[in-house]
Amino acid sequence: MPTPPRSSLLNEQIREWMKNASHVGSWFSAHRFLCPGAPVSAQAGLRKAWAARQEEARGTMVTDKEVEAIGQTLVDPQQPLQARFRALFTLRGLGGPRAITWISRAFGDDSALLKHELAYCLGQMQDSRAIPVLLDVLRDTRQEPMVRHEAGEALGAIGNPDVLEVLKQYSTDPVIEVAETCQLAVQRLEWLQQHSGEPAVAGPYLSVDPAPPAEERDVGRLREVLLDEARPLFDRYRAMFALRDAGGEEAALALAEGLRSGSALFRHEIGYVLGQLQHEAAVPQLTATLARQAESPMVRHECAEALGAIARPACLAALRAYSADPERVVRESCEVALDMYEYETGSAFQYADGLEQLRSPPS
């Protein structure tokens, strides 16, 4: 039986999700239903429910022993990468100092992909207690560029202006992806300061983005800004997130054109956004980018994960084809994306199922 369209699941499942969702709601679980085509009332209701579950998760119902067990899975290199990712996103959902401590411990791992996701999750948690470890990662030139980049982006996502001077310092880093990331993070923090008295406008996605969406709504004009390499990167990012929020085939195809942009950082973010959008019109371009051996590994990695999120049969074929790629971050991304594909096409509601696995009775 084919998987029903995500939009058709909303009316039926939002009440059930609000009533029965796990105490550790996950970014994956929530964002898969918060699509631009969903009714605004449904988006708002699910967003409030997810936020409430997040607050519950930060209470006393999760024991120290349970957090430790999830953390041990995350830091154990003998565990399958898929299990470690699920543990990571469970900790991200739980939040708080214990989760930050366990996530921080995993930066000693040798998987650039995992460390990249550690930094991403710390940024999405928006907890200033994660700033010291993120600063350490950004400063550590032994870390892979994609890991340092993600640490810089996470510092911008947290939104604390105390890190502005450090980010300005690394805005001229010799690694271009790190420099561009820190430039964007500085501009995001300055934008937040300039708009501090204004009410926040909630978009259809729960992620904390490196730039606010542009106010422009015309897809054609947004496409022009997106692809204009003479414009500031921050403006192009704003157009990117406005196109994502607009949704639909035209926006997806416009975004996919950005996969040929000159900046590897920009191309990598396009891959991420297309994964959020989950529109199958972008599958050929994502597949072609994944297949380009000369492409930056951080770009290919995001394209692989986007294909896992879109979860159509053509995506499965591409992911299997590159699951043995000589580039480690690419093959690991395909491995994680295949797990994501299984989740998206299966009956499980919760991706970040670390707590559920602990509490499940033995079979």
TrEMBL record:
InterPro entries to which the protein is assigned, alphabetical: ARM-like, ARM-type_fold, Deoxyhypusine_hydroxylase, HEAT_type_2, PBS_lyase_HEAT
EC number: 1.14.99.29
Cofactor(s) the protein needs: Fe(2+)
Gene Ontology molecular function: deoxyhypusine monooxygenase activity; metal ion binding
Residue sites binding Fe cation 2 per the record: 268-269, 301-302
Keywords tagged on the record: Hypusine biosynthesis, Iron, Metal-binding, Monooxygenase, Oxidoreductase, Repeat
Catalytic activity: [eIF5A protein]-deoxyhypusine + AH2 + O2 = [eIF5A protein]-hypusine + A + H2O
EC main group: oxidoreductase
Associated pathway: Protein modification; eIF5A hypusination
SMART domains with a match to the protein in the record: EZ_HEAT
Function summary: Catalyzes the hydroxylation of the N(6)-(4-aminobutyl)-L-lysine intermediate to form hypusine, an essential post-translational modification only found in mature eIF-5A factor. Catalyzes the hydroxylation of the N(6)-(4-aminobutyl)-L-lysine intermediate produced by deoxyhypusine synthase/DHPS on a critical lysine of the eukaryotic translation initiation factor 5A/eIF-5A. This is the second step of the post-translational modification of that lysine into an unusual amino acid residue named hypusine. Hypusination is unique to mature eIF-5A factor and is essential for its function.
Cross-referenced HAMAP family: Deoxyhypusine_hydroxylase (MF_03101)
Protein name as it appears in the record: Deoxyhypusine hydroxylase
